[in-house]
Amino acid sequence: MTSVPVAEAAPAPGAQEFIPGAPPPASAIADIWRGIGRENPVLVQLLGMCPTMAVTNVLANGLAMGLATTFVLVGSGLFVSLFRKYIANEVRITSYILIIATFVTLADMLLAATFPDIRKALGPFIPLIVANCLLLGRAEAFAAKVPVKRAVADGLGMGLGFTLSLSMLSTIREVLGKGSILGHPLFGPRFEPWVFMMLPPGGFLALGIALLGVAYVGELRKRRARRAPVAGRVAA
Amino acid sequence: MRDLSWIFISTMLVNNFTLVMFLGLCSFFGVTGKVETAWRLGLANTFVLVLTAVSVWVLNTFVLAQTPYLRTIAFIVVIASVVQIVEMAVKKYLPVLFRQLGIYLPLITTNCAILGLALFQTSRGYTFVEGLVFALGAGLGLTVALSLMASIRERTELSDVPAVARRMGLVLVIASCLSMAFMGFAGMGTAG
Predict the structure, then answer these.
(1) What is the pLDDT of residues B138-151, one digit of tens each?
(2) Is residue A232 in a domain?
(3) Distance, in angstroms, between B129 CA and closest chain A CA?
(4) Is the dihedral of CA B163, B167, B168, B173 positive or negative?
(5) Do residue A209 and residue B169 have CB atoms under 8 angstroms apart?
(6) A216 touches chain B (CB under 8 A)
């Protein structure tokens, strides 16, 4: 039915064992876990980098950004999946973008009504959720091909994975750069904040180190898997 | 006049879109394998940025003055159409470049730099000429950042790095150093 879209020809840089085209035969619960762990949007797929680094200087901003993105992911997943049989193939990208933009506008208004301070701090990065590749990527590669329940579960999982990674990064940057968490000071008055972590280069560095850590764990696992059968044979 | 040159320098170097404001990182990490492709994508982006600045000015002045809540949706639709036009033009007149850029050409639509430009232009209330200069500065800044990154990555390609750093980890640390270098421009222009 649907022709293979161009977007699937080029997987995200650094993606490991991740085939966007094939919806894996899994349940909704598995969809949620997949987003948090094995296909984590930030740490594994490297999608949505701009907000990841731009707003993660303090934990409150990172959390708000993550939750707003989760809201948009779930909403757009729901609608893309609902209308998947009615959207013509030629105009699908435009339709997805319009659905996403509608939910982003909703999220922006919700934030303005509930947390105006945080919305001010995030500035143009809330409307910029529209341009987050993660959203269009999930709509195109997943939500457009599966029933509503799984699309929503996938949106929730990806959103939670995104929120978790953002919270992790912003915690590192806030603790090192300001010596506080959610604005509460952690150390005594003699603490000298490492201002570098609050500045743009600190964002790149924090994510770089996080990715090095992920790669290191992967490498360790590979090495252990290689060693295990050999050890078994020697013991036998 | 001073204002215009200030906007240009400030957007290109002091507040470089990619390295200081974190806009357009997908192409920054995705297309910076080769210098050739990188600066060409930068110029394609510049072209789209300038076209966007013009259309956003038209939208803001004549259409959206009464309906600010429609901004995000209107901007993204206009950007998508501009990118579509550029894509068709590149395919017709520069087929080699079209093949080199591949998926990243249509992805300019979801390049945050373009939408970011539209939003900043709106929130700072730039006039038509100021908007044009802003777009030009942003585009050239993007081109500079992409070319710098690509030339560094071409060198690391041949060097012996630890297996752990072979993926994106090293690239991000390089980006951090580049960004640190650009922080050196901070404060430029405030004295004059």
Answers:
(1) 999 999 999 999 99
(2) no
(3) 22
(4) positive
(5) yes
(6) yes
Q: Tell me how close the Cα of B7 comes to any Cα of chain A, in angstroms.
A: 19
User: Which structural domain range is residue A98 located in?
Assistant: 28-223
Check if the beta carbon of residue B171 is closer than 8 Å to that of residue B71. no
**Spatial CB neighbours of B56, under 8 Å, sequence gap ≥ 6:** B75, B78, B117, B118, B121, B122, B131
Inter-chain contact A50–B114, Cβ cutoff 8 Å? no
Q: Please report, for chain B, the start and end positions of each structural domain, with discontinuous segments joined by +.
A: 2-183
Cα torsion A58, A60, A64, A65 to 10°: value is: 10
For B9, other C-beta atoms within 10 Å of its C-beta total 16
Q: Where are the alpha helices (DSSP H) in A37-91?
A: 49-54, 59-82
Contact: A49, B109; criterion CB under 8 Å: no
Q: Are residues B119 and B53 in contact, defined by beta-carbon separation less than 8 angstroms?
A: no
Mutant choice from B17, B21, B72, B170 vs A, greatest count of A C-beta within 10 A: B72
CA distance B83 to A70: 27
ipTM of the complex: 0.81
H helix intervals, chain A: 28-36, 49-54, 59-82, 92-114, 116-122, 133-141, 148-178, 200-235
The set of residues, in sequence order, having a beta carbon less than 8 Å from that of A67 and lying 6+ positions away, is A159, A163
In a domain, A9, yes or no: no
Whether the CB-CB separation of A146 and A127 falls below 8 Å is answered with: no
Prediction pTM value: 0.81
Are A104 and A135 a contacting pair, CB within 8 Å?
Answer: no
CB of A223 less than 8 A from some CB of B = no
Chain A residue numbers with beta carbons less than 8 Å from the beta carbon of B73 are 98, 101-102, 105
In a domain, A76, yes or no: yes
Query: pLDDT of A112-130, one tens digit each?
Result: 899 888 888 888 888 888 8
Whether A59 maps to a domain, the answer reads yes
